[in-house]
Task: structure prediction
Amino acid sequence: MKNGFRNWSDIRVFLSVFREGSTLAASRKLQVSQPTVARRIAIPALSPFDCTHDGR
Result:
């Protein structure tokens, strides 16, 4: 998993979120649930909420 995506479907979901502007809009476009879209694009390296081990 070099680039963080597990398969081509994840890239399709990511592009849909980018084009539609939100996970909710992308989920409607892709006809899947919003939590599914959010889970499919959850890439630890891109998460703005990651903390270091010392709490910062």
